[in-house]
Amino acid sequence: MSEFADNNEILFEIVDQAIAVVTLNRPRVRNAINGALTQKLDAAVKRVEQDPSIRVAILTSSNDRVFCAGADLSEIAAGRADTLSTEDGGFAGFAHHFRTKPWIAAVRGSALAGGCELSLACDMIVASDNAQFGLPEVKRGLFAGAGGVYRLARALPRHIALELIATGDPLSADRAYALGLVNRVVPLDQVLEAACALGAAIAANAPLSVRESLAVGRLAADLAEKDLFVLSQQASERVFASNDAKEGPRAFLEKRAARWSGT
User: Fold this and answer.
1) What does the CA dihedral 92, 139, 168, 123 come to, rounded to 10 degrees?
2) pLDDT in tens, 114-135
3) Which of 9, 75, 137, 212 is catalytic?
4) Among 9, 75, 117, 212, the one annotated catalytic
């Protein structure tokens, strides 16, 4: 994907009928976030949410050396910092967007600063073996304000996360995998393929079950056990009342693939 031109800041493609591949496409400036990309990424998230045929989304990059360099400093220098966020999505139109469907970050090369924050905003990460993750803002007297400092601390052991936050030093793909930050580490030319394979494994499941299960799982670090139990009971009631809850056991007994309706 590194051959894409800079004439469209976001590329949107449907693969395997149910997986949306959303590509950051400003390769000549390391996919730095500008106002146009922000608006289009916000729109892409909404398209994924609104299209019932899409079950999984992948966020990737058209630059095979850099996932995303973070904010475009030329935009900030020109007084357009406010264009790098949207009301619904926050930074890049993505970092704090409401999403019910799973998102996978397919990271090739470095994901530093805002690029790291975008990958942390996803539910899963597939990384190239040369990938790096980090929040170097402290090296420039800045602050990782798009969720990076607390999402990194939730995803990694506390002392490791605090070291990375305070030093601004990067974390290699292999160590990120060993520490549980990354789901898969593969060669550079296999990242999107591996992300699509992970997406296909998710898309094969009942979409309502996936969404309801993710909704509770995402809150596991935020809520008390008793609150999570209540949310789980409510989600369970919605799932077991669905048509797919009848289709799944029926398909199992009939030894065939389930035909999910998402209802």
Assistant:
1) 0
2) 999 999 999 999 999 999 999 9
3) 137
4) 117
